[in-house]
Amino acid sequence: MSARTVCSLRKGEKGVIKSFTDRDMSLKLLEMGCLPGSEVRLDAIAPFGDPICINVGGCYSLSLRLNEAAVIELE
């Protein structure tokens, strides 16, 4: 069974960050505050589906491309 990722969330759905699948991208995401154990919620999806807007830890919103969101595995 494949791991669930942020790009698989539906609008309003939440998840908790577990890990990352890409080492280089994980550094960028960590610097943006996407830390393992943080709760994320999908807040908005652009009209053509890319990018998406997530809320991280209930503190701030972050816009990500789908290929970036696909790197974030959820618990």
Automatic annotation (TrEMBL):
Gene3D superfamilies: 2.30.30.90. InterPro entries: Fe-transptr_FeoA-like, FeoA, FeoA_core_dom, Transcriptional_repressor_C. Keywords: Iron. Residues 4-75 form the Ferrous iron transporter FeoA-like domain. It comes from Dyadobacter sediminis. The keyword Iron applies. It comes from the Bacteria. The keyword Disulfide bond does not apply. This is Ferrous iron transport protein A. It holds the Pfam family FeoA. SMART domains: FeoA. SUPFAM superfamilies: C-terminal domain of transcriptional repressors. One of its GO terms (molecular function) is transition metal ion binding.
